[in-house]
Sequence to fold (484 residues):
Amino acid sequence: MSKILFSHSYYYKLDPKQWKNKTPFPPLGTLYAASLLRENNYDVALFDTNLLDTSKAIIPILKETNPNYLVIYDDGFNYLTKMCLTNMREACFEMIDYGIASNCTIIVCSSDATDHYKEYIDKGAHFIIQGEGEITLLELINALENNINPTTINGIAFKNNNQIQVNNPRAVLHNLDELPLPAWDLVDMEAYQAVWKQSNQKFTLNIATTRGCPYKCNWCAKPIYGNRYNAHSPEYIVKEIAYLKEKYDVSRFWMCDDIFGLKPNWVQEFNKTLKKADIQINYYIQSRVDLLLKEDTIDALAKSGLEEVWVGAESASQKILDAMDKGTKVEEIYEATRLLKEKKIRVAFFLQFGYLTENQEDIQKTIAMVKELLPDNIGISVSYPLPGTKFYDKVKDDLKLKANWKDSDDLDMMFHGTYQSNYYRKLQRFVHKEYRKSQGFYNLKRLFQSDISVIKLKSILKLGYYIPSALIDKIALNKMQNES
Fold:
């Protein structure tokens, strides 16, 4: 059988904000695809770019492995790849060049390539897989191996008679358990563990229990798994967890689903299956506040080992949530936060500033919510238009000079919002400081309680920095606001 070199185009070191965290995850989507092709008797290898800083590192690997195919298959479970960062796009283009020089057939599957297939084909890629890729990839390579014309294969774009042909889309896979477990053995796990040690966090691996998201938030890109929601069985996931615990001695996991546990009774069955297998884990997830409030969801999550949940709070302005088609209520953010804290589950907020029609009243409501609810962590971004979203269609005429961020800390306003980019960059820093200030004051009031920790003591000591620094930022923001 032919040799396939799998790779992807996300480099943590080209995204300084993410590399600083020292919490990299293996390319899970790539591992699924490699596993399926290996199960079908292809000779597969992995060139993992995550911990590298240059695409040139692939050159000696291409010479050593001499593959017939270079498959650049991005991890669709990593939200960073959905951001279509230009640093990663350029790295992918360079990898395509090196693959062509090695006489490989180049196949690319990624969010960015799905959106911008023409650019990738113009750079030399032979085939672009659009959408969910495993079945399409297997069918495509089988066809090429047997000299069958790929013109009828669903889910690909390619050049045919000097014209770009885009075939019909492929339906997403419904029964995810048909896929073999990801090819974890291809990963240099010791290299990941070494980086994680620098983070002072327990080593964590990423697992996907589902694919897709049925909600209609009009700014959220879904070019790979779409608006359908399909789930692995609890038995499949517990089998994978058992394997990872035994092979790598890992017991903490990032459940990297867009939304964890949406399927009715899935979380409850997952908890039972873990208990039956006598497996104890800790994990953290992404979810929605309205979903968390359903029935005994939070109870089941707590019993199964959930330690932290990131929720898409986005804004404390109902006007903005409605404009986003978010489908949640501000009061649900408050209630879900209260219930999670009661169960000793950490809660973290994704926040988004700069959405269309946002004004100072909306911004101040969000800041006030953060200071009142004091989540355990926050992540702040500004509205970022990506192709295939209603939000993109609303602002696409503004995207003349720039349509993608360079890295995840770019925070450039690429459309005509209420304020300019510098305002939102300063706002992001200011909100973080106000949040840390509020944490410090909260812990100061409880200084003499028995449960005070070193981390809480540090938050009190840091008030000496955050109080004056936040004040300086506030003055600067007021000046920028008046100048707009």
In short: The longest helix spans residues 421-445. The chain has two domains: 3-166, 202-384. The longest strand covers residues 306-314. The radius of gyration is 23 Å.
